[in-house]
Amino acid sequence: MSSIGSPTGAAPTDTGRAAATARGHLFNAGSLGRYRDVLARGVDRVARRVGEADRPFTGVTPDELAPLIGAIDLDRPLGDTDAALDELHDVWLRDAVYFHHPRYLAHLNCPVVIPALLGEAVLSAVNSSLDTWDQSAGATLMERRLIEWTAGRIGLGAGADGVFTSGGTQSNLQAMLLAREEAYRTVGGAAGRPDRPQVLSRLRILTSAAGHFSVQKAAKLLGLAADAVLTVPTDANRRMRTDELARAIDRCHRDGQVVMAVVATAGTTDFGTIDPLPEIADICAAAGVWLHVDAAYGCGLLVSPTRRHLLDGIERAASVTVDYHKSFFQPVSSSALLVRDGRTLRHATWHADYLNPARAVEQGIPNQVDKSIQTTRRFDACKLWLTLRIMGPDAIGALFDQVVDLAAQAWRRLDADPRFEVAAPSQLSTVVFRYRPAGLAPDLVDEANLYARDALAASGAALVAGTKVDGAHHLKLTLLNPETTVDDVAHVLDLIADHAAWYARTAAVAELSCPV
Ligand SMILES: *Cc1c(COP(=O)(O)O)cnc(C)c1O
């Protein structure tokens, strides 16, 4: 076998030729023609597909797509941009789920604004990495301005700081990391240097029954006990009950547990409800507990011209999660964690000699990696920057307001429709309901709703989400598209009722013909 340093494989001339060809694909001053041409072709494909989309989904199944994707030989390049885009069309673009379509009503995915798409293209071409100043320069300061701006909108005060993250899950994880370390420090202050595993096993997080599952995941990743997350019951409007919260904190203290954080949700994923933040903040302040507000969904209210007051109390949080990629009409990823006391971010700090040595702090070099659980990190902030500079915050808030108004109209319509039963109204833009006409056998209600959702998705005519409410299957509209009209919603409800009624009829006939 060859030893290190001796040439192997292809002759140098072949290698040289291959490298010369490959170098043509590198983005640099010599390839600007190709850069413009290739990107324009991609833009053109997407524009054409979006222009043709008469429904949000084709209804393709994994079984139909898997063989196509599996048959592609990734070791044999097509070499040609158009051929690769043709192939991309076949395996993805043709059957992708299109969030811009007015009848996409399923999850918390927004149509995106064009200034943010411009940001996406620019940030990936320049490819700044936000971990250190020496890989980003101005991008670092721009991200800091946006963190400052967001913290200002929240009202976190002069000591606030934060960092962009990959999403609400990561923001919540980091918030819980900071809360864990602060709780450990507090317990440590009282007890010298306590045994870490012993303290960790006593830590508890309180969140409502409608809180996001990423809190559970965070607890697991942070080495907390299996039962570390305690669920606080909600009221009839699916908001955290503060009497129950106070009781739960007392119970923890009585049992020798340490409440490391209360996670309030400003915009629950299913119900779009906002926990009573001022009362929760009072309870947390009295108990000396870290208050984290998960505003992954509700953060759009920060720029709402008419509904900012719904977030009153958020300014008292120790930390806040915001997902610009949910209610600021930004492409994935765009999210941030904000903290009241910027010093708490030190729990995410590690100084590496090669990257962010401790002396950089003394020299005043702004290295965002000191505040992040990521290292190499995208300049996602660029998208929000261009959105604010081109459209401005009021424009984003007006778009969000529009979908909140639409949800209220959809709720009234459902409430008045005898075919359906609707859950408590959302404060944001979801509507949870189910098909339940008078006379439908109770055991068929769950099945009819599950069937209707699947049948609708298979047709691709519209997409809605499903969830469970108190154990019963429900359907959910998540309205984030300002282009969706009440008529769109009404049409989709008719489709759902048709599918569900067909199922109920067929099931009833089957039961009659083969009695058990
Ligand atoms: C979506 C959501 C999250 C998770 O955010 P990702 O960006 O999907 O990681 C967390 N909390 C709430 C309330 C959410 O709606």
From TrEMBL:
<dbReference type="InterPro" id="IPR015421">
    <property type="entry name" value="PyrdxlP-dep_Trfase_major"/>
</dbReference>
<dbReference type="InterPro" id="IPR015424">
    <property type="entry name" value="PyrdxlP-dep_Trfase"/>
</dbReference>
<dbReference type="Pfam" id="PF00282">
    <property type="entry name" value="Pyridoxal_deC"/>
</dbReference>
<keyword id="KW-0456">Lyase</keyword>
<dbReference type="InterPro" id="IPR015422">
    <property type="entry name" value="PyrdxlP-dep_Trfase_small"/>
</dbReference>
<dbReference type="InterPro" id="IPR010977">
    <property type="entry name" value="Aromatic_deC"/>
</dbReference>
<protein>
    <submittedName>
        <fullName>L-2,4-diaminobutyrate decarboxylase</fullName>
    </submittedName>
</protein>
<keyword id="KW-0210">Decarboxylase</keyword>
<comment type="similarity">
    <text>Belongs to the group II decarboxylase family.</text>
</comment>
<dbReference type="InterPro" id="IPR002129">
    <property type="entry name" value="PyrdxlP-dep_de-COase"/>
</dbReference>
<keyword id="KW-0663">Pyridoxal phosphate</keyword>
